[in-house]
Amino acid sequence: MIINTQTTLVMRCPECGKLERHEVSRFALAGARSSLHIHCSCGALKSSFVVRRKRVYIEVPCVVCGSSHTSLVTARALWSRTDNIELFCQVTGLELGYLGVQSRMRDQVYLGNTLDGMDFLADGFFHNQEVMSAVIRHLHNLGREGRIYCECGNQHIDVDVFPDRLELHCRRC
After folding, report:
1. H/E/C letters for each residue in 112-134?
2. What is the dihedral of CA 114, 118, 124, 126, to 10 degrees?
3. Terminus-to-terminus CA distance in the chain, angstroms?
4. Among 10, 46, 163, 169, which one is most buried in terms of CB atoms within 10 A?
5. Has this prediction a pTM greater than 0.70?
């Protein structure tokens, strides 16, 4: 019987915006060490894990809305080899990161492309923050489903963000 002893966290830093992978060991959350804090290479806190009664509370400072979001997962779900756990902004619905088996991360690191150039998240940048948040959320969902692509067949589309609009560009064309 093979027991999974680690999971992979992939997420963007809420301070510097750098996308990094972190290995989380099951043993780091065992026994007296029932909490774990993961930091970016810049030193900023990326996430905190707290274990209580076979439940894991994951707190993530949000790069999108500026607050912190807490997710509750069972220890079994955290260490399973079946599905990845999506960490998302509870205000906008945008993905912040993933926890799971690294080989199953596939291109879920689409958020690496979606959220490049984080200056558009500053307060007051958009003419209408509510509308643009909804548009970005919808665009992100379309991209995650593979429904954004160029006529040339390329699915790697860049997004330029402006105060009043988004412009999509094919990397090949």
Report:
1. HHHCCCHHHHCCCCCCCHHHHHH
2. -30
3. 50
4. 46
5. no
Average pLDDT value over all residues in the chain: 78
Give mean pLDDT, residues 110-126. Answer: 52
**The two three-digit tokens of residue 122, written as one number:** 């500053």
Report how far residue 61's alpha carbon sits from residue 46's, in angstroms, rounded to the nearest whole number: 6
Q: For the chain, what percentages of helix, strand and coil (3-state, to nearest 5) are there? A: 25, 35, 40
The arithmetic mean of pLDDT across residues 114-131, rounded, is 61
The pLDDT of residue 50: 92
Show the beta-strand stretches assigned E in the chain. 6-12, 19-25, 35-39, 45-52, 55-61, 68-74, 85-88, 95-100, 157-161, 166-170
Q: By the 8 A CB rule, do 52 and 28 touch?
A: no
Joined together, the tokens standing for residue 169 give: 């560009």
Assigned token pair, 161: 């963000």
